[in-house]
Amino acid sequence: MEKRIIKIDESLAKQRLDKGVASALDESRKYVKDLIDGKHIFVNGKNEKASYTLCENDEVVVEIQELESTEVLPEDIPLDIVYEDQDVIVINKPKGMVVHPAPGHYSGTLVNALLYHCKDLSGINGVMRPGIVHRIDKDTSGLLVVCKNDFAHRSISEQLQDKTCHRQYVCIVHHPFSHEYGTIHAPIGRCEKDRKKMEVTAKNSKDAITHFTVLKNFKDYAYVQCQLETGRTHQIRVHMQYIGHPIAGDPTYGYRKTIETNGQLLHANKLEFKHPRTNELMTFEIGLEPEFARVLKELEENE
After folding, report:
1. Collapsed DSSP state (helix, strand, coil) of residue 215
2. How far apart are CA 245 and CA 234, in angstroms?
3. Catalytic residue among 58, 87, 137, 139
4. 231-264 pLDDT per residue, tens
5. Which of 81, 168, 207, 220 can bridge 270 by disulfide, Cβ–Cβ 3.0-4.6 Å?
6. Against a cut of 0.85, is the pTM above it?
């Protein structure tokens, strides 16, 4: 059984329990209503009705039954380990690797590799996502932290919610900028026309904030640094498309005519958090992914 813990912030406060949880889990309200009726959702330790009004700082625990037929197996896949101790592992994820098993991807994922590398991973997110406290997309490369126990998982999760865990990315986007920096504050939700995509929308959405700095302008592109204040699905990709600067190579949110790459040119180059056990500030930085570095060098040489 998978347990999901949702700490209610101001974006979910004052919503009905079924609506708020459906939004947080990106599931249908009927699915959530069935969980409520089956006594699988707890608010501050108590079963509440679907009509319960969520309050800021409420803690909602959702019990999700895993498919018994699904088994995630350890696989001997090389890992680029940047740091490791008894509580956390910081991984430099390669482009093209899926973080955790999902329909269509039950092997070859980061989780399969982690299960082979270490036997102990946090269980808060269930058997499909052991240790995973935050994700990066399949074709996005770079840093993410994995938790080896529930103690570490809760700490990092709280830091993500409190916005004290800092994640920085670099990307190459279409069109140069006329200004050096900016902030995109636009809510993101599931696209109604295509459920596999996200979009900026006021309907069934979550608050999303991305800060960006232009590192260098080129004739048709720009090299940009992004700092996440929130962590919505596809956030940087959606926000950059929204302001008219889609990420180069992005097959979902970008242009058809773009730089030839294996997916979006987006790289998580810096990660900062407080160690769960020692409270020490941990800062990790990683160089550019090879394909990203090649494209950037070509843009610089063509100037």
Report:
1. strand
2. 15
3. 137
4. 899 999 999 999 999 999 999 999 999 999 989 9
5. 168
6. no
